[in-house]
Amino acid sequence: MKKYLGGVLAVALGSTLLFSCGPTERKLPIYGERSPVEREVDGKKVVDTIYHTIPNFSFLNQDSTTITQDFFEDKIYVTNFFFTHCPSICPTMQRNLLKAYEKYKGNDKIVFLSHSIDFKYDQPSVLKDYATKLGVDDDHWQFVTGSKADIYGIAEKYMVYTKEDANAPGGYDHQGYLVIIDPEKRIRGAYDGTNDEQVKQFLEDLDVILAEYK
Fold first, then answer.
1. What's the distance, Cα to Cα, between the start and end of the chain in Å?
2. How far apart are CA 192 and CA 211, in angstroms?
3. Which residues of this UniProt protein bind Cu cation (predicted)?
4. N or C, which end of the chain is more exposed by having fewer CB within 10 Å?
């Protein structure tokens, strides 16, 4: 059964707000499926928790360069799904993500990754023009494209709904979440990029996770 952030967002935000009321040294929760694994340490049985993680990937970015998870090694990153000619939620979502990009510009601990779900039109040259117009002038924000199977497949791993739909505005249906991934490839937060209150929480939570991995 596929699980998307639409089904867990309320729980996620509730947990985040709950953690927000705690001490200054709070940590963000970890989302996704998890399973216990038993192992033996010094003759004693201990149980570890294996968390949902983002698998390896390979996409082509706005500079026609292949981007893999090696680029994000030891970094926190924020990911989302969009397309350049989106007439609905994307402009607002990307403007709000730009706030985070500008806030942390020059901070090598955090980067950004936007996947285009329009695998037909959004080729690297289109993504490059889009990034330039948005004001992105370094490699801290990657805009990537790939095959339909690869882009839509990785969206499921981030628990974000994406679909090619002729009846949707622009021909694609998708969720506008900004998803925080930690250096261990785990989902640590998800926020509606079109909602001012959730974007405010998102910016605050980036400070929290940066403090965790300082």
1. 36
2. 23
3. 86, 90, 174
4. N
Average pLDDT, stretch 81-96? 98
86 is in an annotated binding site: yes
d(CA 34, CA 22): 24
Helix (H, G, I), strand (E, B) or coil at 72: helix
Q: Note the pLDDT tens digit of each residue in 11-54.
A: 444 444 444 444 357 899 999 988 877 777 777 777 778 899 99
User: How does strand 162-164 pair with strand 177-181?
Assistant: unpaired
Hey, what are 64's tokens? 């026609």
CA separation, residue 49 to residues 34, 35, 61, 151 (Å) = 7, 6, 34, 28
Share above pLDDT 90 across residues of the chain, in percent, rounded to a whole number: 79
Asked whether residue 52 is marked as a ligand-binding residue, the answer is: no
Model pTM score: 0.88
Q: What phi and psi values does residue 30 have, to the nearest 5 degrees?
A: -110, 130
